[in-house]
Amino acid sequence: MLSGKEVATVVRAEVKERVAALAEMGRTVGLATVLVGEDAASQVYVRGKHRAATEAGMLSFDRTLPADTTQDKVEDLIRELNEDPQVDGMIVQLPLPDGLDGNQAVELIAPAKDADGLHPDSLGRLVLDRPGPRPATPAGIMRILSHYEVETSGKLAVVIGRSFLVGRPMSLLLSVKGVDCTVIQTHSRTPDLPGVAREADILIVAIGRPNFVTADFVKPGATIIDVGINRTDDGLVGDVDYDGVFDIAGAITPVPGGVGPMTIASLLENTVSAAERSAAAAGA
Ligand code: NAP
Q: Which of 41, 107, 170, 265 is the most exposed place for a label (fewest CB within 10 A)?
């Protein structure tokens, strides 16, 4: 079992040290969240982010707007946080309620404060393989792979799901120089998905369908990363039938306790990196 929870503990301790080093220079580190509406799952995610930020020694700014707010008000708040020198990293919790445009809101975040790594500037940097904040969930998955020393070079990775949040950036991160996977990016129109997935040395699943990936998708010994978080009558389950594939897989992330904790850890990493860059620029 690849425990994201365990790796997240390591990453969060590293972040805490970096925050403490900045504090010694008299520099605080701040993370702001923008939450619109009262979606229960979003509230849970946002609370988790604040708890993690506070534990790492960061200031955390919890900004909420009612569900019936306007796009203009959301954008005004983002502009205000862009200008706030105490805010180093910012996230807009997606999805926004119906009628509001989440993509447009994310585009307004100052790229230097893009804690989720989802601003077009950050995604462009990812495509160009230039430094910059990486999308938090795929970045967390890369850290799980490196922590557990999963061999990537020359391996075949199959990514199921092509969202801009997870699947697409995941495929890019796996194919860059130094990681060197051969990547097959699949989606809902891919024919014979079990057959394609069965070729994978590394199988990443991010589709949002409970227990969708069963034993017939899995090559013996494959590493499986389950990104899915699905609320069912049986509680939280992933996109992979964990019990059904466990004996065939070489390694697998659980749900919960797999990718989820790493997403938060990566968000904190992006925030402290932003603070370090801004402190360096101020000192230069
Ligand atoms: P999304 O935006 O809904 O995208 C889902 C993707 O899965 C789409 O590309 C879709 O293909 C593909 N898909 C859907 N059904 C499929 C099928 N039957 N066969 C093949 N592909 C299929 O979802 P997302 O934002 O990427 O999230 C995916 C899951 O990850 C969700 O359960 C979400 O809650 C979870 N998640 C977890 C974390 C974490 O921190 N652990 C972070 C983000 C998301 P098309 O493009 O063809 O429609």
A: 41
**Pair (162, 57) in one structural domain:** no
pTM confidence score: 0.97
Query: What is the whole-number distance in angstroms between the Cα of residue 46 and the centre of ligand 1?
Result: 20
Question: Measured from the CB, is residue 193 less than 6 Å from ligand 1?
Answer: yes
Q: Are residues 168 and 97 in the same domain?
A: no
Given this model, what pLDDT does residue 284 score? 62
- Ligand 1 atom with the smallest distance to the CA of 259 is 41
H-run or E-run covering 169? helix 167-175
Residue 222's SS3 state is coil
Q: What is the CB neighbour count within 10 angstroms for residue 34? A: 23
261 vs 49: CA distance, rounded Å? 10
CATH number at residue 58: 3.40.50.10860
The secondary structure element, H or E, covering residue 283 is helix 259-283
Give the CA angle between residues 226, 7, 200 to the nearest 5°.
35
Total number of domains constituting the chain = 2
Question: Which residues, including other chains, have CB under 8 Å from residue 193's CB and lie 6 or more apart?
Answer: 160, 186, 217
For tokens 């807009």, name the residue: 92
CB of 36 closer than 6 A to ligand 1? no
Q: 238: domain CATH number?
A: 3.40.50.720
Q: Which residues of the chain have pLDDT under 50?
A: none
Ligand 1 atom with the shortest distance to the CA of 166: 26
Q: Whose CA is nearest to atom 19 of ligand 1?
A: 188
Q: Which domain holds residue 197?
A: 136-259
Q: Which residues pair with 184 in a beta bridge?
A: 158
Active-site residue (options: 88, 113, 114, 116): 116
Residue 160: CB within 6 Å of ligand 1? Answer: yes
